[in-house]
Amino acid sequence: MNKNLYRIVFNKARNMFMAVAENVRSQSKAAGQSTSSEIVSSGQSLVQEKSFHQLWHVKALAASISLLVPFAPVYAAIVADSAANAANRAVIGAGKNSAGTTVPVVNIQTPKNGISHNIYKQFDVLAEGAVLNNSRTGATTKTVGAVGANPFLATGEARVILNEVNSTAASRFEGNLEVAGQMADVIIANPSGINIKGGGFINANKAIFTTGKPQLNADGSIKQFTVDQGKITVSANPNSKFGLGGNNNDANYVDLYTRALELSAELR
Questions:
Q1: pLDDT by residue (tens digit) across 23-45?
Q2: Which of 18, 186, 204, 225 has its CA 20 to 30 A from that of 29?
């Protein structure tokens, strides 16, 4: 293994994050459930060693937050990067949840080697949630009900949905992020940081949060994440003591790759 190279993995059995060697696999949520698909190409290190000096700083654990958060509209919560290649620009539409609130619905781009690589100027999952459409025939979701077929998936659905953010602002993760259609691994990568506040996943096998810059191979597989900046914070929302997983989180396991990590809420 590479000396002094670590990552943080959430251990569901112990209800806590643990620092483990970079090449150690996450454990699935329960016996008999599927394990991770190969997100990175075989034989490749997931992170660059030079980027992981003093990788994270854990400042506090298991604190409750009771402050109310003002309402924020969702209309511009997810914005594609117009400067990205067309093959990496997702199309963002909208649906309505049961309360009649507008929710972003993202038609992810055509996968290459099973990985749909989407680049955004902003990627925030607010309290109303968001949907990643990974269905080529249409699907029924918990978040917005029925969604139509994603025209970018004519050759097949994605195994991994990579959401790369080019922004000077941290991403917010405060609601459910649902994968419509075929279950997939979900990655959110924002070098400017990610603020997790009570968010969760629906129909996601594995979830990765990272402040690294993804590096891809020519065949579309992920070579590594270069992490040299950014912080991930995990705090509770007003309606739950949990920072991650208190909002219908059913991702089988969660990985965090970041320069600094601040925890101030319980996790499950």
A1: 544 444 443 333 334 555 444 44
A2: 225
Q: Per residue in 49-95, pLDDT tens?
A: 433 333 333 332 222 222 223 333 445 799 999 999 999 999 999 99
Count of residues making up the chain: 268
- Residue 152, by phi and psi: left (phi above 0), alpha (psi -120 to 50) or beta? alpha
Please name the residue that has the structure tokens 């991930």.
Answer: 232
Give the type of residue at 115: I
b/e string for 147-161 if b means 16 or more Cβ within 10 A?
beebebbeeebbbbb
Give the helix, strand, coil percentages of the chain, each rounded to 5.
5, 45, 55
Residue 136 lies in domain: 6-267
Residue 1 resides in a domain: no
**CATH (domain of 97):** 2.160.20.10
Instruction: Name the pTM for this structure.
Output: 0.77
How many domains are there within the chain?
1
Return the DSSP state at 87.
G
Q: How far is CA 174 from CA 60, 114, 205, 236, in A?
A: 19, 27, 19, 9
